[in-house]
Design brief:
- The protein has 111 residues and is α+β, with helices and mostly antiparallel strands.
- It has one domain.
- The chain contains two helices and six strands.
- The strands form two sheets. It has a four-stranded antiparallel beta sheet with strand order 3-4-5-6.
């Protein structure tokens, strides 16, 4: 979560920075239901969904995981769109990936 002290331009810049970390990469999020949270005293067992980030670059995976730790979670990626959860708000972007040697992603907020 971003510091609540940030206001105005600083808050906008921080938001755009973490959004870029979560979106501008080649990492694929893989959701799994293999974890369990349990409380042995009251016998409550709960299925926990986790997201494993897979990609060719461990650096990209680390940056996406860092963005997620600050509330910008890459939730879904297909060839046509990206879904990012920003502190409970779901943002869906259209993705245009370049076929050049470098990665160029242009994001458009879908309404």
């Amino acid at each position: 979560m971003l510091h609540k002290d940030l206001v105005g331009d600083e808050r906008i810049v921080a938001h755009e920075f973490f959004l870029a970390l979560a979106a501008c990469n080649t990492v694929i999020p893989v959701r799994t239901h293999d974890g369990f949270s349990s409380c042995t005293d009251s016998q409550i067992f709960e299925d926990v969904e986790t997201i494993d980030y897979q990609g060719e670059s461990p650096d990209e995976q680390a940056l996406v995981a860092a963005a997620s730790a600050y509330g910008y979670t890459l939730f879904e990626r297909t060839s046509g769109h990206i879904v990012i959860d920003v502190n409970g708000e779901t943002l869906r972007y259209k993705s245009l990936q370049s076929t050049l040697h470098y990665l160029a992603i242009m994001l458009y907020l879908l309404f």
